[in-house]
Amino acid sequence: MSRKRRPAPSLSALLAERSAVDLSTPLVNGKHCRVWTHGRFSDGYGRLRWNNLQKGAHVLAFKERGGILTKTKSCVCHHCDNKPCIEPAHLFAGSIGDNNHDRDRKGRGGNLGESHWKARLTEADVRAIRADSRTHMTIADSYGVCRHTVLRVKARKSWRHV
Q1: How far apart are CA 58 and CA 55, in angstroms?
Q2: Element (H, E) at 55
Q3: pLDDT tens string 30-52
Q4: Distance of alpha carbon 54 from alpha carbon 49, whole angstroms
Q5: What is the dihedral sign for C-alpha 94, 97, 103, 109?
């Protein structure tokens, strides 16, 4: 006698059973965050296997509620800035640029200048490089960086915040 297979739960049911409303989060669009309580990617976003693919739980929640992603609006962004949140009222479609602009506007970029883990220059070095009239190669040798770095600093393509 063969066992009957249980039907697979719907996406809505999975999203509901693997998340919980977090009342300690601030209200955004009239609702608290619904936080994903199961597996997460290393970057903190909820992870769910659906149709044999690992997907972001927030992306699946957005699509389940009728959200549409296009070529120009290919990211699911959070109004609440809470990565494990899957509350549809907190999610919106945006471009990569929209998402980056939102991050920078809210001060979540973080890795500018000296705080970046690979930074070799200080803000004082950058000011001195911009004022220096020697050749780029000579300046680069004195600071232990490549000529291209000096060129980008002087052209304000890097270290723009200084």
Answers
A1: 9
A2: strand 53-56
A3: 999 999 999 999 989 999 998 88
A4: 4
A5: positive
The predicted structure's pLDDT at residue 137 = 96
Query: CA of 156: how far to CAs of 15, 102, 138, in Å?
Result: 46, 22, 19
Give yes or no for a contact between 82 and 29, defined as CB atoms under 8 angstroms apart.
Answer: no
From the number of C-beta atoms within 10 Å of its C-beta (0-12, 13-18, 19+), residue 19 rates as buried
Residue 31, pLDDT score: 95
Alpha helices (H) along 68-122: 96-105
pLDDT tens by residue, 58-77: 999 999 999 899 989 999 99
Residue-range domain boundaries for the chain: 11-105, 117-154
